[in-house]
Design brief:
The chain is an alpha/beta fold and 384 residues long. The two termini are 35 Å apart. The chain has two domains: 3-291, Aminopeptidase, CATH 3.40.630.10; 293-380, Urease, subunit C, domain 1 (Roll), CATH 2.30.40. The strands form four sheets. An eight-stranded mixed β-sheet has the order 1-2-4-3-5-9-7-8, sandwiched between helices. A four-stranded mixed β-sheet has the order 13-12-11-14, with no helix packed on it. It has helices at 3-13, 25-33, 77-91, 96-101, 112-117, 138-150, 191-207, 227-233, 253-272; strands at residues 40-46, 52-59, 63-69, 102-107, 154-160, 165-167, 176-179, 215-217, 238-243, 289-291, 293-306, 309-323, 326-337, 343-349, 355-356, 371-374, 377-380.
Length: 384
Protein backbone atom coordinates (compact mmCIF):
# COMPACT_ATOMS: atom_id res chain seq x y z
CA UNK A 1 0.00 0.00 0.00
CA UNK A 2 1.13 3.53 -0.72
CA UNK A 3 1.91 5.78 2.24
CA UNK A 4 -0.52 8.50 1.18
CA UNK A 5 -3.29 5.91 0.97
CA UNK A 6 -2.58 4.77 4.53
CA UNK A 7 -2.52 8.34 5.82
CA UNK A 8 -5.83 9.01 4.12
CA UNK A 9 -7.34 5.93 5.78
CA UNK A 10 -6.13 7.15 9.16
CA UNK A 11 -7.76 10.55 8.77
CA UNK A 12 -11.00 8.96 7.67
CA UNK A 13 -11.19 6.29 10.38
CA UNK A 14 -9.46 7.86 13.39
CA UNK A 15 -11.45 7.10 16.55
CA UNK A 16 -12.30 10.59 17.81
CA UNK A 17 -13.58 9.35 21.18
CA UNK A 18 -10.03 8.44 22.19
CA UNK A 19 -7.65 11.34 22.72
CA UNK A 20 -4.59 12.33 24.77
CA UNK A 21 -2.82 9.96 27.15
CA UNK A 22 -5.43 8.77 29.65
CA UNK A 23 -7.19 5.74 28.16
CA UNK A 24 -9.04 3.27 30.40
CA UNK A 25 -11.70 0.57 30.16
CA UNK A 26 -14.30 3.29 30.64
CA UNK A 27 -13.13 4.92 27.42
CA UNK A 28 -13.04 1.78 25.28
CA UNK A 29 -16.13 -0.08 26.52
CA UNK A 30 -18.64 2.01 24.50
CA UNK A 31 -16.49 1.38 21.43
CA UNK A 32 -16.40 -2.37 22.07
CA UNK A 33 -20.18 -2.41 22.30
CA UNK A 34 -20.48 -0.83 18.85
CA UNK A 35 -18.06 -3.01 16.90
CA UNK A 36 -20.76 -5.24 15.42
CA UNK A 37 -21.00 -8.93 14.66
CA UNK A 38 -17.84 -9.14 12.53
CA UNK A 39 -15.73 -8.68 15.65
CA UNK A 40 -15.87 -11.27 18.43
CA UNK A 41 -15.53 -9.49 21.78
CA UNK A 42 -15.02 -11.44 25.00
CA UNK A 43 -14.10 -10.84 28.60
CA UNK A 44 -11.17 -13.22 28.98
CA UNK A 45 -10.21 -12.51 32.58
CA UNK A 46 -10.06 -10.02 35.40
CA UNK A 47 -7.39 -7.79 36.87
CA UNK A 48 -6.26 -7.67 40.49
CA UNK A 49 -9.09 -5.21 41.22
CA UNK A 50 -11.60 -7.33 39.28
CA UNK A 51 -11.74 -5.07 36.25
CA UNK A 52 -12.51 -6.95 33.03
CA UNK A 53 -9.77 -7.74 30.52
CA UNK A 54 -11.18 -7.74 27.01
CA UNK A 55 -10.09 -9.57 23.89
CA UNK A 56 -11.24 -9.08 20.31
CA UNK A 57 -10.96 -11.43 17.38
CA UNK A 58 -11.33 -10.28 13.79
CA UNK A 59 -10.46 -11.85 10.45
CA UNK A 60 -10.68 -15.29 8.89
CA UNK A 61 -7.19 -15.95 7.58
CA UNK A 62 -4.79 -18.70 8.61
CA UNK A 63 -1.99 -16.31 9.62
CA UNK A 64 -2.60 -15.57 13.31
CA UNK A 65 -1.42 -12.31 14.89
CA UNK A 66 -1.63 -11.73 18.66
CA UNK A 67 -1.58 -8.06 19.72
CA UNK A 68 -1.71 -6.68 23.26
CA UNK A 69 -1.50 -3.08 24.48
CA UNK A 70 -1.26 -1.26 27.81
CA UNK A 71 0.58 -4.04 29.57
CA UNK A 72 1.97 -0.90 31.17
CA UNK A 73 -1.13 1.06 32.08
CA UNK A 74 0.26 4.50 31.25
CA UNK A 75 1.31 3.56 27.70
CA UNK A 76 -1.85 4.21 25.71
CA UNK A 77 -0.81 5.47 22.26
CA UNK A 78 -0.80 1.99 20.75
CA UNK A 79 -4.32 1.42 22.14
CA UNK A 80 -5.66 4.50 20.37
CA UNK A 81 -4.11 3.29 17.12
CA UNK A 82 -5.68 -0.16 17.58
CA UNK A 83 -9.16 1.37 17.53
CA UNK A 84 -8.23 3.45 14.50
CA UNK A 85 -7.22 0.17 12.84
CA UNK A 86 -10.45 -1.55 13.86
CA UNK A 87 -12.48 1.35 12.47
CA UNK A 88 -10.62 0.94 9.19
CA UNK A 89 -11.33 -2.79 9.04
CA UNK A 90 -15.04 -2.17 9.66
CA UNK A 91 -15.52 0.97 7.61
CA UNK A 92 -13.49 0.30 4.50
CA UNK A 93 -12.68 -2.47 2.04
CA UNK A 94 -9.07 -1.27 1.67
CA UNK A 95 -7.78 -3.74 4.27
CA UNK A 96 -10.11 -6.59 3.35
CA UNK A 97 -7.13 -8.56 2.07
CA UNK A 98 -5.57 -8.45 5.55
CA UNK A 99 -8.66 -10.00 7.15
CA UNK A 100 -8.82 -12.69 4.47
CA UNK A 101 -5.20 -13.67 5.03
CA UNK A 102 -4.96 -13.06 8.79
CA UNK A 103 -6.86 -13.52 12.03
CA UNK A 104 -6.10 -10.90 14.68
CA UNK A 105 -6.52 -11.50 18.41
CA UNK A 106 -6.33 -8.13 20.15
CA UNK A 107 -6.16 -7.33 23.86
CA UNK A 108 -6.50 -3.52 23.94
CA UNK A 109 -5.87 -2.99 27.67
CA UNK A 110 -4.10 -5.87 29.40
CA UNK A 111 -3.57 -3.89 32.62
CA UNK A 112 -6.87 -2.05 33.31
CA UNK A 113 -5.93 -1.24 36.92
CA UNK A 114 -2.68 0.39 35.82
CA UNK A 115 -4.55 2.23 33.07
CA UNK A 116 -7.06 3.60 35.57
CA UNK A 117 -4.34 4.72 37.99
CA UNK A 118 -2.06 5.83 35.12
CA UNK A 119 0.85 3.74 36.30
CA UNK A 120 3.26 1.35 34.63
CA UNK A 121 2.63 -1.39 37.18
CA UNK A 122 -0.50 -3.30 38.11
CA UNK A 123 -2.48 -2.98 41.38
CA UNK A 124 -0.03 -5.34 43.12
CA UNK A 125 2.82 -3.03 42.05
CA UNK A 126 4.20 -5.67 39.67
CA UNK A 127 5.62 -4.88 36.25
CA UNK A 128 3.76 -7.37 34.07
CA UNK A 129 6.59 -7.28 31.56
CA UNK A 130 8.84 -8.92 34.14
CA UNK A 131 6.36 -11.64 35.07
CA UNK A 132 6.47 -13.83 31.97
CA UNK A 133 8.08 -16.78 33.72
CA UNK A 134 6.65 -16.72 37.23
CA UNK A 135 3.13 -15.68 36.13
CA UNK A 136 2.30 -14.37 39.58
CA UNK A 137 -0.35 -11.89 38.39
CA UNK A 138 -3.83 -12.52 36.98
CA UNK A 139 -3.12 -10.26 34.00
CA UNK A 140 0.02 -12.23 33.15
CA UNK A 141 -1.95 -15.48 33.28
CA UNK A 142 -4.60 -14.05 30.94
CA UNK A 143 -1.97 -13.15 28.33
CA UNK A 144 -0.26 -16.52 28.67
CA UNK A 145 -3.59 -18.32 28.25
CA UNK A 146 -4.31 -16.29 25.11
CA UNK A 147 -0.90 -17.19 23.70
CA UNK A 148 -1.42 -20.90 24.33
CA UNK A 149 -5.00 -20.97 23.04
CA UNK A 150 -4.58 -18.77 19.96
CA UNK A 151 -1.17 -20.21 18.96
CA UNK A 152 -0.04 -17.08 17.09
CA UNK A 153 2.34 -16.99 14.16
CA UNK A 154 3.28 -13.40 15.05
CA UNK A 155 3.16 -11.38 18.29
CA UNK A 156 2.88 -7.58 18.55
CA UNK A 157 3.95 -6.35 22.01
CA UNK A 158 2.65 -2.76 22.10
CA UNK A 159 4.20 -0.13 24.36
CA UNK A 160 5.04 3.54 24.78
CA UNK A 161 8.42 5.07 25.57
CA UNK A 162 9.57 8.16 27.42
CA UNK A 163 10.78 11.37 25.83
CA UNK A 164 14.39 10.67 26.90
CA UNK A 165 15.33 8.52 23.90
CA UNK A 166 17.14 9.55 20.76
CA UNK A 167 17.46 7.43 17.64
CA UNK A 168 21.16 6.93 18.13
CA UNK A 169 23.44 9.49 19.76
CA UNK A 170 22.08 12.34 17.66
CA UNK A 171 19.67 15.24 17.88
CA UNK A 172 16.84 13.07 16.55
CA UNK A 173 14.08 11.98 18.90
CA UNK A 174 13.17 8.27 18.76
CA UNK A 175 9.57 8.88 17.76
CA UNK A 176 8.91 5.21 17.01
CA UNK A 177 11.09 2.33 18.14
CA UNK A 178 11.06 -1.40 17.59
CA UNK A 179 12.83 -4.52 18.77
CA UNK A 180 13.05 -8.11 17.67
CA UNK A 181 13.71 -9.43 21.20
CA UNK A 182 16.50 -11.88 21.89
CA UNK A 183 15.63 -15.46 22.76
CA UNK A 184 18.90 -16.53 24.34
CA UNK A 185 21.81 -15.01 26.25
CA UNK A 186 24.11 -14.66 23.19
CA UNK A 187 21.32 -12.77 21.37
CA UNK A 188 21.55 -15.20 18.47
CA UNK A 189 19.88 -14.01 15.28
CA UNK A 190 17.58 -17.01 15.02
CA UNK A 191 15.19 -17.79 12.14
CA UNK A 192 12.14 -16.41 13.94
CA UNK A 193 14.04 -13.28 15.00
CA UNK A 194 14.92 -12.78 11.34
CA UNK A 195 11.21 -12.89 10.50
CA UNK A 196 10.51 -10.19 13.12
CA UNK A 197 13.47 -8.15 11.85
CA UNK A 198 12.23 -8.34 8.25
CA UNK A 199 8.82 -7.00 9.25
CA UNK A 200 10.40 -4.20 11.31
CA UNK A 201 12.58 -3.26 8.33
CA UNK A 202 9.46 -2.89 6.20
CA UNK A 203 7.85 -0.59 8.79
CA UNK A 204 11.05 1.41 9.07
CA UNK A 205 11.13 1.94 5.31
CA UNK A 206 7.62 3.40 5.43
CA UNK A 207 8.28 5.60 8.47
CA UNK A 208 11.50 7.06 7.05
CA UNK A 209 9.30 8.88 4.52
CA UNK A 210 7.51 10.65 7.38
CA UNK A 211 10.05 10.89 10.22
CA UNK A 212 13.49 10.48 8.64
CA UNK A 213 16.13 9.54 11.19
CA UNK A 214 13.59 9.21 14.00
CA UNK A 215 13.17 5.44 14.17
CA UNK A 216 15.26 3.46 16.63
CA UNK A 217 15.69 -0.02 18.00
CA UNK A 218 16.19 -1.09 21.58
CA UNK A 219 19.16 -2.91 23.01
CA UNK A 220 18.38 -6.62 22.67
CA UNK A 221 19.84 -7.74 26.00
CA UNK A 222 18.14 -10.99 26.94
CA UNK A 223 15.75 -11.26 29.88
CA UNK A 224 13.52 -14.33 29.88
CA UNK A 225 11.24 -12.68 32.45
CA UNK A 226 10.13 -10.25 29.72
CA UNK A 227 7.14 -11.36 27.70
CA UNK A 228 8.69 -10.62 24.32
CA UNK A 229 11.82 -12.62 25.10
CA UNK A 230 9.71 -15.51 26.39
CA UNK A 231 7.48 -15.68 23.31
CA UNK A 232 10.49 -15.29 21.03
CA UNK A 233 12.19 -18.12 22.93
CA UNK A 234 9.16 -20.28 22.10
CA UNK A 235 9.91 -19.66 18.43
CA UNK A 236 7.11 -17.20 17.68
CA UNK A 237 8.35 -14.10 15.83
CA UNK A 238 7.70 -11.25 18.25
CA UNK A 239 7.91 -7.50 17.65
CA UNK A 240 8.12 -4.82 20.32
CA UNK A 241 6.49 -1.53 19.29
CA UNK A 242 7.36 1.63 21.22
CA UNK A 243 5.39 4.84 20.65
CA UNK A 244 7.69 7.77 21.42
CA UNK A 245 7.89 11.54 21.21
CA UNK A 246 7.33 13.79 18.20
CA UNK A 247 7.99 17.53 18.41
CA UNK A 248 5.43 19.25 20.69
CA UNK A 249 3.27 16.11 20.61
CA UNK A 250 2.93 15.37 24.30
CA UNK A 251 -0.62 14.17 23.64
CA UNK A 252 0.93 11.51 21.35
CA UNK A 253 -1.55 12.21 18.56
CA UNK A 254 1.08 12.50 15.80
CA UNK A 255 2.78 9.36 17.09
CA UNK A 256 -0.61 7.65 17.09
CA UNK A 257 -0.77 8.08 13.31
CA UNK A 258 2.78 6.75 12.95
CA UNK A 259 1.86 3.63 14.93
CA UNK A 260 -1.21 3.21 12.72
CA UNK A 261 1.04 3.42 9.66
CA UNK A 262 3.23 0.75 11.24
CA UNK A 263 0.25 -1.54 11.91
CA UNK A 264 -1.14 -1.24 8.40
CA UNK A 265 2.25 -1.54 6.70
CA UNK A 266 3.25 -4.64 8.65
CA UNK A 267 -0.12 -6.42 8.41
CA UNK A 268 -0.29 -5.69 4.68
CA UNK A 269 3.18 -7.21 4.32
CA UNK A 270 2.30 -10.29 6.36
CA UNK A 271 -0.93 -10.77 4.42
CA UNK A 272 0.80 -10.61 1.05
CA UNK A 273 4.10 -12.37 1.70
CA UNK A 274 5.50 -15.59 3.03
CA UNK A 275 7.81 -13.85 5.48
CA UNK A 276 10.95 -15.98 5.58
CA UNK A 277 13.36 -13.63 7.31
CA UNK A 278 15.68 -13.56 4.31
CA UNK A 279 15.41 -9.76 4.15
CA UNK A 280 16.34 -9.14 7.80
CA UNK A 281 19.64 -7.31 7.31
CA UNK A 282 18.09 -3.86 6.83
CA UNK A 283 16.96 -4.08 10.47
CA UNK A 284 20.58 -4.13 11.59
CA UNK A 285 21.12 -0.66 10.13
CA UNK A 286 18.48 1.01 12.31
CA UNK A 287 20.23 3.06 15.05
CA UNK A 288 20.01 1.89 18.64
CA UNK A 289 18.15 4.10 21.09
CA UNK A 290 20.22 6.24 23.42
CA UNK A 291 19.14 8.09 26.56
CA UNK A 292 20.29 11.49 25.36
CA UNK A 293 17.23 13.79 25.59
CA UNK A 294 15.54 15.96 28.17
CA UNK A 295 12.27 17.79 27.69
CA UNK A 296 13.93 21.17 28.29
CA UNK A 297 17.52 22.31 28.69
CA UNK A 298 18.32 25.82 29.83
CA UNK A 299 21.80 26.49 28.44
CA UNK A 300 24.48 28.83 29.81
CA UNK A 301 22.80 29.47 33.14
CA UNK A 302 24.41 31.14 36.12
CA UNK A 303 23.78 28.71 38.97
CA UNK A 304 26.37 29.11 41.75
CA UNK A 305 27.27 26.08 43.83
CA UNK A 306 27.10 23.35 41.16
CA UNK A 307 30.29 21.54 40.17
CA UNK A 308 32.36 24.57 41.23
CA UNK A 309 31.39 26.32 38.02
CA UNK A 310 29.50 29.53 37.55
CA UNK A 311 27.89 28.53 34.24
CA UNK A 312 25.95 25.32 33.83
CA UNK A 313 23.09 23.77 31.89
CA UNK A 314 19.80 22.93 33.57
CA UNK A 315 18.02 19.71 32.58
CA UNK A 316 14.24 19.58 33.02
CA UNK A 317 12.04 16.51 32.63
CA UNK A 318 8.25 16.60 32.62
CA UNK A 319 6.51 14.52 35.27
CA UNK A 320 3.24 12.97 34.10
CA UNK A 321 0.56 13.16 36.77
CA UNK A 322 -3.07 12.13 36.82
CA UNK A 323 -5.14 15.04 38.14
CA UNK A 324 -8.95 14.88 38.00
CA UNK A 325 -8.80 12.15 35.33
CA UNK A 326 -6.52 14.21 33.12
CA UNK A 327 -2.79 13.99 32.56
CA UNK A 328 -0.83 17.08 33.55
CA UNK A 329 2.83 17.68 32.77
CA UNK A 330 4.89 19.18 35.59
CA UNK A 331 8.42 20.36 34.72
CA UNK A 332 11.03 19.18 37.24
CA UNK A 333 14.73 20.04 37.36
CA UNK A 334 16.70 16.78 37.15
CA UNK A 335 20.31 17.97 36.76
CA UNK A 336 22.40 21.12 36.88
CA UNK A 337 25.74 20.49 35.18
CA UNK A 338 27.49 20.54 31.82
CA UNK A 339 25.10 18.81 29.42
CA UNK A 340 26.99 19.21 26.15
CA UNK A 341 26.35 15.56 25.24
CA UNK A 342 22.57 15.87 25.66
CA UNK A 343 19.76 17.28 23.55
CA UNK A 344 16.37 18.75 24.40
CA UNK A 345 12.94 18.96 22.85
CA UNK A 346 13.04 22.63 23.81
CA UNK A 347 16.12 24.75 24.53
CA UNK A 348 16.34 28.10 26.32
CA UNK A 349 19.51 30.17 26.37
CA UNK A 350 20.05 32.01 29.66
CA UNK A 351 23.03 33.89 28.17
CA UNK A 352 25.00 33.68 31.41
CA UNK A 353 22.20 35.08 33.55
CA UNK A 354 20.79 33.65 36.75
CA UNK A 355 17.78 31.35 36.67
CA UNK A 356 15.36 31.89 39.55
CA UNK A 357 12.32 30.13 40.95
CA UNK A 358 8.95 31.69 41.79
CA UNK A 359 10.39 33.04 45.05
CA UNK A 360 13.26 34.72 43.18
CA UNK A 361 15.71 32.22 44.65
CA UNK A 362 18.32 30.38 42.59
CA UNK A 363 16.78 27.17 41.23
CA UNK A 364 17.81 23.80 42.60
CA UNK A 365 17.54 20.17 41.56
CA UNK A 366 13.98 18.84 42.17
CA UNK A 367 12.41 22.29 41.68
CA UNK A 368 8.98 21.90 40.10
CA UNK A 369 7.02 24.60 38.29
CA UNK A 370 5.74 25.50 34.85
CA UNK A 371 8.05 28.52 34.57
CA UNK A 372 11.34 30.01 35.73
CA UNK A 373 12.48 33.63 35.94
CA UNK A 374 15.36 34.91 33.81
CA UNK A 375 16.25 38.61 33.78
CA UNK A 376 12.97 39.44 35.59
CA UNK A 377 10.96 37.67 32.88
CA UNK A 378 8.78 34.61 33.40
CA UNK A 379 9.84 31.91 30.94
CA UNK A 380 7.35 29.13 30.26
CA UNK A 381 8.83 25.64 30.30
CA UNK A 382 5.83 23.99 28.70
CA UNK A 383 5.25 24.68 25.02
CA UNK A 384 1.79 25.89 24.11
Amino acid sequence: MQLEEIKSLFLKHKETNLYHRYITNKHIEPLLNNLGDSVEVKTVGESVLNNPIYALKIGEGHKRVLMWSQMHGNESTTTKALFDLLNTFLGSSDLEHVLKACTLYIMPILNPDGAQAYTRINANEVDLNRDAQNLTQPESKVLRAAFELFKPHFCYNLHGQRTIFGAGQANKSATVSFLAPAQDEPCTITPNRKVAMEIIAVMNDALQNVIPGQVGVYDDSFNLNCVGDTFQAENVPTILFEAGHYENDYEREVTRELIYISYVTSLHYIANHDVTGDKYEAYLKIPENQKCFYDVIIRNAKVPGYLNKKINDIAIQFQERLVDKKIEFIPKIEKIENLKDFYAHKEINANGLGVLDVDNEVVKVNYENVFVIINNEKIALLSK
